[in-house]
Design a protein that fits this description.
Blueprint lengths: L8 H41 L7 E4 L20 E4 L7 E5 L3 E5 L7 E2 L10 E7 L2 E9 L16 E5 L7 E4 L1 H4 L6 E7 L2 E9 L2 E5 L10 E2 L6 E8 L2 E8 L2 E8 L4 E4 L1 H4 L5 E9 L2 E8 L4 E7 L4 E9 L9 E3 L6 E6 L2 E6 L5 E2 L9 E6 L7 E5 L2 E5 L7 E2 L8 E7 L7 E6 L2 E6 L8 E6 L7 E2 L7 E5 L5 E5 L7 E2 H4 L11 E3 L7 E6 L7 E7 L9 E2 L11 E8 L7 E10 L5 E10 L6 H7 L1 E3 L7 E6 L6 E6 L11 E6 L6 E6 L10 E2 L2 E4 L5 E6 L2 E5 L11 E2 L8 E8 L4 E7 L2 E6 L1
Parallel strand pairs: 40-42, 50-55
Antiparallel strand pairs: 1-57, 2-3, 3-4, 4-5, 6-7, 7-8, 8-9, 10-11, 11-12, 12-13, 14-15, 15-16, 16-17, 18-19, 19-20, 20-21, 22-23, 23-24, 24-25, 26-27, 27-28, 28-29, 30-31, 31-32, 32-33, 34-35, 35-36, 36-37, 38-39, 39-40, 40-41, 42-43, 43-44, 44-45, 46-47, 47-48, 48-49, 51-52, 52-53, 53-54, ...
Length: about 750
């Protein structure tokens, strides 16, 4: 204590009182300062825990994965088309319906994203070079693919143009310019005599502009051709167009200058069972491929000079390419390549005698393009990426370096090794990213083919991996050696695979407990229920733990399983219930069930399921449990649509006793309505309740305030493509977010 000298005691007392008051004030100020510093420090630490301003990085696969077993369905992802700039063939474009547009400047040796990752919809249905400038491209951004064809443009898609080789893009036609956003665009064509005239082939008819390079492009609908315009080619300046109107296919021949057209009646007289009509010009003739819905497909030849129409070949099986796996060799017009079944075949023209092509490419081919100057080179776009033959088709080599367009359908990350992960891909099977040689070098390896779905990694043992395939005879596979060898769980236990609906989870505390779905046998209706195993290495060690027919459903599928890491015995089953409405039409109800005793006996679990009311009967993406409240969950929806009234995410609290809804809060706030995806949430309790949610518009972080509906979400990072999401994982120790993208593989963000 400081003592001030004063000759009078009273004075000294006053001074002492003043000092005491000062000390109290100082202490109060000191305490408040400490509290403020602590608060600021806590805020600083909290803020530093999540750094939102970094860049997302691609993990791939960005080239064809390793495939020791020589799996035919091994690839980097499905490419829809490849375009070669005729005046300089080193420049190429390749597109993916979900993954976007890529460019190569070295003849396909290396690929870079064209800037489509920044489009509102990253998927690209078609693109082409402006014929007189390699840096000017036109592209079609589609909302989603349509079973292997370009999908509808949606409210944020449309026709884009770049004049600087993809550095900047501008929208030159959307729904307003073409009349509606609910249409698909099938391609562009340039008028041979004047490339400034650009045609757009669409579901709503044929559109064109007289100046595709104009600052403001003016679009005109060609009124003479109605219906859906699917293909267009030129013999000189005379155009041929295939059209579908009121379930009837026609081919028109028209002259742009005179605006006159006529049908080719011979084609209309052929069976109405047509799926598509495409063609290729050959000298002064047109070779026509008629792809039937049920009948064997046929090749015909049309002679414009005398209007004769001659069948060249029947019995063709066109399974992929939607009629575009079809090309005439520009260097030798007595040769045609056609996609036939799950391969390609080469025919001599006009005898149509088959000449074999070499194998070694991904078997599902979508597009064929001959090199314009090198007579030996042929490029194909297939479900494994881009392949090239440099010896006229005898041998094929993957040319997909940098492409990175895998359509991820499921994702998991090892908790013991945050660098190891597994994905299930549409078209390209299951792949594991691991340090196989134990030298610190991680690489992708395809471990099974087919169309893969849910994968898992034992969170205590990275070598124990679960993969899957959807096809007949497929199912869920188990491996104890990083998928070097696998066992089919469904077949080993006499269970029928659920196919496309396959889903599985591990118990949050005991990874030996596996929960998965299967299709019940010997029932008149379709039923998919839940099975459980406490040791999957043993055969016939599976119990059925659900029977949802007990809840008034005769036909149903367990479509999703979700665990709760905060309340480990809580298990959620997302069930699709099929029935008829009052008008007798088939409808699907989306229902959510819960059990709180997933570790108990099978008989008790079967009787313990109860239904949880959900905010909307629509496709559920994910379910996450609240860390502090066993009766509160977060529900995301797979898609709300860009202009939908439905929302992306809700918090739902249920009554502890009655299990009825107590509170529903729409948490969407500043998350744009869009496609969400599946398994796209992660809930944490590091700093209180926190949650990450991923949608096509990005990955978002919300804290406790956000999850009460009182605060906005924070967008995480930049550079993430705008694709559907299938899988989101956060590694707590490594502070890494990993997201699986339908169309752009795996991406990571490091905090």
């Amino acid at each position: 204590m400081a003592v001030f000298f004063c000759p009078e005691f009273g004075c000294a007392l006053k001074v002492r009182n003043i000092i005491s008051k000062f000390e109290l004030t100082a202490k109060s100020f000191f305490m408040k300062s400490i509290l403020l510093i602590v608060a600021l420090y806590s805020f600083f630490v909290y803020s530093q825990t999540w750094n939102y301003s970094g860049a997302w990085e691609s993990v791939g696969p960005n080239d064809k994965p390793d495939s020791p077993a020589n799996i035919s369905a091994c690839g980097v992802g499905p490419a829809e088309f490849v375009r070669i700039y005729k005046n300089n063939p080193d420049y190429m474009l390749a597109g993916s319906l979900s993954g976007g547009l890529f460019v190569s400047e070295d003849g396909g040796e290396n690929w870079l994203n064209s800037g489509s990752d920044a489009w509102d919809y990253s998927g690209c249905g078609w693109a082409d070079f402006y014929p007189e400038n390699k840096d000017i491209w036109f592209a079609y951004s589609n909302n989603a693919d349509n079973n292997g064809k370009p999908g509808k443009m949606g409210v944020r898609g449309g026709i884009l143009r770049t004049k600087d080789a993809g550095i900047t893009w501008e929208m030159i036609a959307g729904g307003n310019e073409l009349g509606t956003s609910k249409i698909a665009v099938y391609g562009f064509r340039f008028l041979p005599s004047n490339p400034n005239v650009l045609f757009v082939l669409s579901e709503a008819g044929l559109f064109y502009t007289k100046d595709c390079l104009a600052e403001k492009v003016a679009w005109i609908k060609y009124e003479g051709l109605n219906g859906s315009i699917y293909d267009m080619d030129f013999v000189n300046d005379q155009a041929f167009v295939s059209s579908l109107k009121q379930n009837k296919w026609s081919v028109y021949r028209f002259d742009f200058a005179s605006q006159k057209q006529e049908t080719i009646p011979q084609i209309e007289s052929i069976s109405d069972d047509k799926r598509s009509i495409t063609f290729e010009p050959l000298n002064e003739k047109l070779v026509v491929l008629i792809d039937y819905t049920k009948l064997d497909d046929e090749i015909w030849e049309y002679h414009p000079a005398d209007t004769s129409f001659i069948q060249l070949k029947s019995g063709v099986q066109v399974n992929f390419g939607s009629g575009h796996t079809f090309a005439v060799n520009p260097h030798n017009q007595s040769e045609i390549i056609i996609g036939n079944s799950i391969s390609m075949k080469r025919y001599s023209y006009p005898s149509m005698k088959e000449n074999k092509l070499g194998s070694g490419y991904h078997v599902d081919v979508e597009f064929v393009a001959y090199h314009p100057t090198d007579t030996n080179k042929i490029f194909i776009a297939c479900h494994g990426g881009i392949y090239v033959s440099e010896n006229k088709g005898s041998k094929w080599i993957s040319k997909s370096n940098g492409l990175g367009i895998a359509e991820v359908m499921g994702l998991d990350v090892s908790e013991t090794d945050p660098n190891q992960l597994v994905i299930g891909c549409f078209h390209d099977g299951s792949s594991v990213y691991a340090d196989y040689n134990k030298n610190g070098n991680y690489f992708w390896r395809t471990v099974n083919g087919g169309d893969a779905l849910t994968p898992l990694i034992n969170y205590k043992n990275a070598a124990e991996v679960y993969t899957s395939t959807q096809f007949a005879g497929g199912g869920l596979y188990h491996s104890s050696d990083t998928s070097n060898s696998v066992m089919n769980i469904h077949s080993a236990n006499g269970l029928t695979t659920p196919g496309w609906e396959l889903t599985a989870v591990l118990h949050p505390e005991n990874p030996d407990w596996l929960f998965f779905n299967f299709q019940s046998a010997n029932t008149p209706d379709v039923r998919m229920d839940v099975a459980r195993s406490n040791d999957i290495t043993k055969q016939k060690n599976v119990e059925t733990i659900s029977d949802f027919s007990k809840y008034g459903m005769s036909s149903y599928k367990v479509y999703g399983l979700f665990n709760n890491k905060f309340f480990p015995d809580h298990l959620y089953a997302y069930v699709l219930h099929f029935e008829k409405n009052e008008e007798g039409k088939n409808i699907t109800k989306h229902r959510l069930f819960k059990t709180e005793i997933a570790g108990d006996s099978a008989a008790k679990i079967i009787d313990s399921w109860y239904e949880l009311e959900v905010p909307v009967s629509a496709w559920i993406g994910d379910v996450e449990g609240d860390p502090a409240n066993p009766d509160r969950i977060f529900i995301s929806y797979a898609s709300a649509g860009d202009d939908s009234e439905n929302k992306m995410i809700y918090a739902v609290k249920y009554n502890k006793k009655t299990k009825g809804v107590k509170q529903i809060i729409d948490l969407t706030r500043n998350i744009p309505n869009s496609v969400g995806g599946r398994f796209n949430m992660v809930c944490l309790n590091e700093n209180g309740t926190e949650l990450f949610i991923a949608t096509r518009t990005g990955v978002y972080y919300g804290n406790k305030k956000t999850l009460k509906g009182k605060g906005d979400w924070i967008k995480v990072g930049f550079g993430l493509p705008h694709c559907k999401v299938y899988g989101l994982h956060y590694h707590v120790q490594a502070k890494i977010l990993t997201v699986g993208m339908f169309g752009r593989g795996v991406w990571r963000y490091r905090f």
